[in-house]
Amino acid sequence: MAKNTTTTVDPVKHQCSFCKKTITIKDQYDMPIFDPQTGFAICNSCIREIYHFISEVDTKQKQTEKQNFSVELDEIIAHNKPHNIKEYLDEYIINQDKAKKILAVAVYNHYKRMRYGYNQDIDGVEIEKSNVIMLGPSGCGKTAMLLHLAKLLDIPFAVTDASSLTEAGFVGADVEVAVRNLYYAANKNIDKAEHGIIYLDEFDKIARKSGINNSITADPGHEGVQQALLKMLEGSVVEFTARGQRKHPEAPTIKVDTKNILFIVGGAFIGIDKTIAKRIQQTDTNIGFGAKVKSSANKPKYDELIHQVRPEDLMKYGIIPEILGRLPIICTLETLDEAALLRILTEPKNAPIKQYEKLLRMDNVELTFSEDALRAVAKKAIERKTGARSLKGIIEDVMLDIMFDIPKSNEHRRVVITADCINNHTAPQLTELSD
């Protein structure tokens, strides 16, 4: 008879390179890291301890960063009271006093809200975000005001054109691009980005085409974008790819929490003054023989109407109610008249005239603008209906030839720009001066 023979296989054992214990290998998880060529191995117990140690270090670092930022918040709040912010903006922005006050209070309260969040005292009161919607004509100073505000607070600030955004899945930029722009404005520092300001320009361009009525057709560049922005405005973790490519499983992603990001949206909202006027007329209508007949001369002007804007006017324009609920502060800006444009040319710290005077001074040339020339520049800007945005372009057009010829000589000279130079493109007066 043949004998039954049983063979026993010796269990595989390896020594951990860290704890030096000999581990019996029952499955791959007993020794997750093993190099058969060198014999280097790490057991699962050591991996757990290493992970626990790294987690503790990360937690301590986050607590330290939280404390440091808490101190920074105290300094920001102490040095940037609303009246301090407005005084700073007055140095660069002409007029728009109401808008300056609204923004100063909104930003101050936003940083107080963040400071409150870092306190450990919990009383059950949660301060909600106060995002802002800005309405004003083109070139009235919306973007310039926010740029100087971000410079004062020394925080990341990013401008994104809302008209370029589309709903996810359509050709165009997803809404996450706004957060990605802020991430790069913060020099890829996620903590800084999570406490910055995002400005969505041309926000009126994403108003739904059907106005207050729901549309039965796809509206990827309008209502769809507004729907996609809802969670971001309220506060959520936004995930995006570092290089801006479409998200897919293999692409590395970056996560940014928008809970403490202040969102400011702005646009010209062309035609909304007519909506406001219609609403006011409906509430003030008198019917009967005793009713007052209003002539066209008595119709309120744009500046009078824009300050009376209400959320229902924006809904009729095409902004969905859910978005308006997340933009509780409405900031309105007036048009710039000739007197305001004259002041913008010369008074602010970075006034266009001061910039050109400094440029020519580097070539040993004195630049002078006559009063008539400044008025001619302001009138041209009003004709173009582009506000302060076109002032520098008008001056550049006149100064091109003179700035091209001046570097040919180092002699001390004076250049005088007259109204004739602005209106008829005649050559500026150039005279040599004795040192």
From TrEMBL:
SMART domains xref list? AAA (SM00382), ClpB_D2-small (SM01086)
What are the Clp ATPase C-terminal domain coordinates in residue numbering? 336-430
Mind telling me which Gene3D superfamilies this protein's record contains?
1.10.8.60, P-loop containing nucleotide triphosphate hydrolases
> What are the record keywords, sorted?
ATP-binding, Chaperone, Hydrolase, Nucleotide-binding, Protease, Zinc
Listed GO MF terms? ATP binding; ATP hydrolysis activity; ATP-dependent protein folding chaperone; peptidase activity; unfolded protein binding
Known Pfam families for this protein?
AAA_2, ClpB_D2-small
GO biological process annotations for this chain's record? cell division; proteolysis involved in protein catabolic process
Q: Where is the AAA+ ATPase domain?
A: 128-352
Would you tell me the Gene Ontology cellular component terms? HslUV protease complex
Instruction: Extract the NCBIfam families matched here.
Output: clpX, PRK05342.1
User: What is the name attached to this protein's record?
Assistant: ATP-dependent Clp protease ATP-binding subunit ClpX
Source species of the chain? Propionispira arboris
- What broad taxonomic lineage does this protein's source fall under? Bacteria, Bacillati, Bacillota, Negativicutes, Selenomonadales
